[in-house]
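Sorry, explain these tokens?

***
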Amino acid sequence: MWNLVNQYISDAIHEHFEFTRKTQLPCNAHARLFKIENDHHCYLVKVDHIQALERFECEVRNHDTLIRDSDFLVADTITIGSSIEFCFLVLEWLETSGELEDWYTCGATLAKLHARHEQKMYGLEEDNYFFDLAQPNQWHKKWEVFFAEERIAWQLQLLAEKGIKLVDIDLFVELIKPMLPHQVAPSLLHGHFWRGNIAFSQGKPCLFCPSCYYGDREIDLASSELFAPLPHAFYEGYDSVYPRMEGYEDRRRIYQLYPLLCHANMFAGDYLKQAANHIDDLCK
């Protein structure tokens, strides 16, 4: 397969490429990550079984959307391809460092993205993925309907199909819709905005692994506070451009249920317990 990767890269950059160093990188998804390089070029390569090709193609389009509509650094796609058994996605290598982390600018950059409001409905023209999970994006006019049905109900149904029933899905969906009463204009979301998908290159914020769609901007903010809250400077930067709305603290807990359910579906274990406790708290 790696000869094929070399060939695809050579065709994409219009010069011969053959890597001389290959390093496997840590990854918490099914795909394997590699850094490949020679004396002149360096790339990030994602490798997975052939069934993941559609997911890689969605990721390419999500990357292109963020490159077009945001001021974040986002890796360009070099090429995408497949063999009989595997598929691969080759991305520009962004050299990142933890030494120059401008979290204030990162927050302000996300706020500028959220403030564009160029879409009238909630969703996306195609379904995509959160990690390895299919993420439905059917267009809706009402945000509370989109979030309750396309996000929460979908994840609960996936768990139910595995024999795990955390709550009556229909009743819970109708319960959370009235919890989202505020009027919100659709923003383009990263969709999986947390510390593990943020880095800095010479101080400029970079984003990785997008799961884009149009929704309430508070989704990205709530996600950023769930597993590894970002530095206070990030939220100062965000509020300096597009202040959070009153009641965000109440909605944050509702929005954090979605990534918890996704993790419960993918990894089970303690995430199932966290999701169940989260649902119990919301029901109260």
User: Anything to note?
Assistant: The chain has a mean pLDDT of 95.
